[in-house]
Amino acid sequence: MAICTFNARTLASEACIEDLMMQARKIKYDVIGLTETRRHRPLHAVFETGEELFLGTCDSKGVGGVGVLVNTHLAMNIDSYESLTTRIGRLRLRRCGSTPALTIFVAYAPTSSYEEEELEAFYMDLERLYREDHTFFKVIVGDFNAKIGPRRTAEELHIGTHGVEWNEQGERLSEFIMTTHTIHGNSQFQKPSHLRWTWESPGGQFHNEIDHIIFNRRFCLTDVAVVPKFYTGSDHRLLRARFCFSVRGKRAMKFRKRSPKTSINWDHFASLASKWEDSVIDNIDDEYNRLVEHLHDSARKAESPHVAKRRLSSKTLELIRQRGIARATGNYQQTSELAKQCREAIKEDLKERRAAVMDEAAEAGRSIRKARRSFANYKTKMTSLRRPDGTVTASRRAMEKVIYDFYSDLFDSHVYLPTHHLRQDEYIAPSVLPSEIQHAIKSMKNCTAPGPDRIKPEHLKSIPQVIIKTLARLFTRYLSECKVPTSWKTSKTVLLYKKGDPDDIGNYRPICLLSVIYKLFTRVILNRIGRILDEGQPCEQAGFRKGFSTIDHIHTLTRLIEVSREYKMPLCLTFIDLKKAFDTVETEAVIEALGNQGVPTQYIRMLRELYDNFTTRISPFYKEVIVNVKRGVRQGDTISPKLFSAALENIMRHLEWEDLGVKVDGRYLHHLRFADDIVLITPNIEQAERMLAEFDNACGKIGLRLNLTKTMFMKNGLVPDAPFTLNGKNISECSSYVYLGREVNMMNDLAPELCRRKRAAWGAFQNIEGVVKKTKNIRLRAHLFDTAVLPALTYASETWTLRKQDEHAVSVAQRALERTMLGISLYTQVQKGIRSSELRQRTKIRDAVDHAKKSKIRWAGHVMRYSDDRWTRAVTDWIPRDIKRTPGRPPTRWSDKLTRFSCSSNCSRWFSNTFLDSPLYPNRRAQKAPEMFSEPLNTSKTLQQKESPS
């Protein structure tokens, strides 16, 4: 085993990591201990070629930072890596075949310029951590800033006879080695002077051996030497030690190398797949596996190696080659200059290559986010998890146990529900038609992760008609027999980090990667029963329903707050957060809900069969964790949101809330829901407390639990203070809440939400910044901004009550983005007298304020045309008749701009009565357009075309 140490001087940038990896792939190594990384954020990267890189953080002054690079064939042996301090890291390798259990400490000692107390504290920490570790083999590598000479007395058996010279810090290191009963590796072997030094001064005048390798077992070290050809521009050289551990034992488990990326010629795939010969086989599994194998064979024959473009240019590679030659010849001045040029060239190459990849994706109409993600040649993984007792572990074996325990408990049934007896009906599901298959395939998204069978949506979109007919026959058989292939009973689950503490396993969302053919089957079922499920939902539910969106409920809530503020009405909003709602709803509760909503029994039996005896495989590292799934709907399946909404509606039907809530034109509005996002609407805390208790009790019957730490309430000043508790726990009060992506507060103040929109816009702009700054295509640049940044800046603008200062804030944010697009600073704009209108002529982007106003008018047209009983229209028309408004000018209303825009001055303040019926409306709209738009004629014409009733 080759264990190395290298002071990289810095690994804070992507260019430095790229240079390190390129040099590491040229030498033989197993582990490289890295010191002085100078990173402010930790990194755990798994590269496409299998190497794993762990980098810790430096201190607040930018000093220190340690890490390790583990080669591909040893990655499966990793048990844990921990950055214990900013100067000490620990890598633990578990026993695997001939590789023994091994702990490698990476250390970076303070230099001689530091105080004696800090140096002593470093060695005390290192000694304590070393003694706390009980692994049989232990190795310490790193930059100790110490010089150790040859053995001077017979008592110094821990030192070899081939050192160079001693200094004061070398004496302290020698004391540490003797205290811990370890052995100094560098001095055990005789080497020429040019293969011994590990650091050189600027100009190459002085050379010292200050990087050291220390170990605890004699006779296992076979060699220690520097590797001169490993050079990244650092003033240190890589020091490599070779160890020979026991060769007995079984052969180590080999790392399964990742298959090289390939591309498929889909026309060729379709021609190969068309050779399919359909035949009926009694065994469902054999029949299905035969089809999948044929698709795999066709795809394999249509594959061709994907030739990835080089990340570094030939000019940069030539600079790196010249840098190595200059260092080998001893030309220190040229080496220093070339090292600086290489760093800049690598940085520029990566920047240009990333921009080129995103530019290609933008021109092809592909996702820029996915293109940016594909450019990174590594993926990050979790580094530690918190156990139930509160301790944090970095051991992969322990982390796998934490994951298994958590998800075994999460997916296990906690509520006993008797098997629901399905009613007998005379409905017989008709045969699945090929046209149904084709319609379902067209609605599937491309570039999604495949399931365990490795079939992608692109495969299904290229299959010939003969296979579509086979799928129709198979699906018809599955429906009639209520049986599915065994392979559909298992899935692969990936854990996606959401937000919050990364050590908390609860902050990861389990996404179920199912067979694409399975999802095609459930999509066919959904297309058949979707209307029944939608008709069973009340107007309070807007989640995953055709014709509904988040804007419906955001508008309803903001309008409620607006009216309560104007008419001095008490209002209390309770925002409910359900804990892992989709993963914890009981299956029998879903089955019962489907029966109560009138879904044909044959489809219910089919869904029950799909959910029975289901298992999932979680692979956080290299070992699969198999978990039985006994409840929950699968996140990743298109039918899952509908099933969850049905189960939730089934319990809420039995809640007696008819006389609770806020009365809106004779109807009580007591809650709104968007899938599992629920808000209770009450005039006081007493009602809210009662409703929350009843809802919690109903949820418990189907396995759902409330997350009381995230469940909050918000009230205006007219609601008297009172304790708000649930099961003896206080419910937190908040002054504002982010509901469905929009921050709401009881003052209806838009300023906090605009601050969030600005941050979101800058975040979206960072994703396309490389493209918009590089491309010369003005139309493409404007299109990227209008499709990526503008929606982030104006999200939910349909519900905004814009004042002049709000419009100014949006315009200022957009102008700042425009200047960044063009590479012009505010100082330059002012100095050169460039008007903002000139910048707009150069960027050709849409005006955000005009876009927000047009969206609002368009939304108002939709609301006025609603003919159902949804709350969006009800609260828009609502004026409390039994409450007299206090005198004085009211706060700006949502409808004020629309009133001035659509109605004459002597018209009623509310425009709903004349919005569609008045024959003078188009002319008045054109007359009022200059108040809202800079181009009234074109705008009014567009609005007349878009908003005229169909």
TrEMBL record:
Q: Region Disordered: which residues?
A: 926-950
One of this protein's Pfam families, by short name?
Answer: Exo_endo_phos
Record domain Reverse transcriptase: where:
477-731
**Taxonomy, superkingdom:** Eukaryota
Q: From the Swiss-Prot or TrEMBL record, what is one GO molecular function term?
A: catalytic activity
Q: InterPro entries, alphabetically?
A: DNA/RNA_pol_sf, Endo/exonu/phosph_ase_sf, Endo/exonuclease/phosphatase, Rev_trsase/Diguanyl_cyclase, RT_dom
Q: Where is the composition biased (Polar residues)?
A: 936-950
Q: Which PROSITE patterns match?
A: RT_POL
Q: Which Gene3D superfamilies match?
A: 3.30.70.270, Endonuclease/exonuclease/phosphatase
Transmembrane stretches in the record are none
- Record protein name field: Reverse transcriptase domain-containing protein
Organism source for this protein?
A: Haemonchus contortus
